[in-house]
Amino acid sequence: MFSRQGPHVLCCLYVQSRIIRNIYKELSFCSRKVCNMKVDEIMDVALRRGFIFPASEIYGGVSGFWEYGNLGTLMKRKWEDAWRHHFLSLDQNYYEISTSNIMPEAVFKGSGHLEHFNDPLTACTKCNQRFRADDLITDACGKNAEDMTTEEMEVAINEENIQCPRCGGELGPVQLFNMMFCLDIGAAGGTKGYLRPETAQGAFISFKRMFEVLRNRLPIGIGIVGRVYRNEISPRQGFFRLREFNQAELQIFFDPDTFDEHASFDDVAGTPLRVRPLDREEEVEMTAGDFRDRYDIGRFYVYHMVKIQEFYLDALKVPREKFRFRELSERERAFYNKVHWDIEVDMETLGGYKEVAGIHYRTSHDLSGHQEMSKQKMQVNIDGKKFVPHVLELSFGVDRNFWALLDLAFAKEEERTVFRFPPRMAPITVAVFPLLNKQPLIEKATEIYSQLASIMQTDYDRGGSIGRRYRRQDEIGTPFCVTVDFDTLEDGTVTLRDRDTMEQKRVDENSLLGEILSRVAQ
User: Fold this and answer.
1) pTM for this predicted structure
2) CATH among 1.25.60.10, 3.40.440.10, 3.30.70.2740, 3.30.40.230 for 119-177
3) Is it the case that residue 25 has pLDDT exceeding 60?
4) What is d(CA 417, CA 474) in angstroms, rounded to the nearest whole number?
5) In whole angstroms, what is the distance from residue 150 CA to residue 59 CA?
6) Confidence band, pLDDT 50/70/90 cuts, at residue 35
7) Secondary structure of residue 278 in the 3-state scheme
8) Using CA atoms, how far apart are residues 285 and 307, in angstroms rounded to an integer?
């Protein structure tokens, strides 16, 4: 079958198959055949069409580092813009800032990351390969080991006779490994710094300045969208667990005495929340008001849970049955969190529910730590009342949400491969085709393309049969296609095709933009 292919094509096919095999290894915890098949199919499209690809690919790549291609960058930007629009509009005093990726060591002493930001590491005594101990235990016996101590993990490894997955050798003791990337700042190397492991610290050390800028009012929301860096021990989950990745985080600073207050809570009290509390073995639904009363969580916290759920169900169109909040135990949650619920999406490629975001009550941990370390007062004075503000954090993994969109939208049908992205999230909103390569049709199609491209992301394609062009757009998730034919030249109508139903409708070119915008807004 390859007799007509050049050597460079065979080489590309070999490299692509090697990449997919490596992804299988990184997704080793998901043993179901259907999972691996879907990963294979998604990655085939993602690599060919420019959604994502491994970083430093021509040199073999490094685990935990990926790049966004042209389509991936467009979709990632749309997700980030949707996040900004939804969350920064929740209050008149919520704003976005941009902060440094590199910070001095003192910042992370003050935040507690130097002491506490650790993962459990074990190394093979034979081949010296290193692994996350909790992951090995979960793979071996299926139980969640994140809340175990290092001593308990060593016991579990011995009792389950867990050996090195690479060579079968004996595993060494479990130790804590700090996940921050350390570096020297300056030519002389006199100042130690770290790449930020979260965007949050930029908001905390900027709070004093922003409180003054925003006229000494609370609550204040400081949002940051950007790259963060974690030296993961063994990133095995493909595009899901990375060493360099993107976060969108909103730190909300408020008076702790108002934690059980929110002016708009009554408006959302009747909204059903889909939750998995510690005292339940499966998801349950209860209204926000009942949830607040049953679990004694402040109205300020629960209000923002409702708004997070709205973002996933309404903006991202995640099916309700594939979404949940999961409560974390005291031993599971991060060292700085008093209340911690993860936002999880059920993904076939990852074998079930996986974390894509979190809502965390960080109390005054960060501001108090930085106040002690920097000797700068983080106290505020509101109407004569002095206190250190508390923080509610809404934290989202951009890349994890990106993968969730790929997972949920992908479908392999008899006649086509299609990504059914929500129209707002699709990298290309509409594609314009001349039916044939005839100059009058090309000129008219180009005119319509220019009109649409000034408003939305638009593609233009004149190569191949109309059926092939439809299939190419289906494969990258374009929700609408516009075809210009000879009737267009006569009566000013075009064919508007819907990706999901494949139905075609004649639309007057003067009302085309409004028709598309109306469908995108649904």
Assistant:
1) 0.91
2) 3.30.40.230
3) no
4) 7
5) 36
6) low
7) coil
8) 16
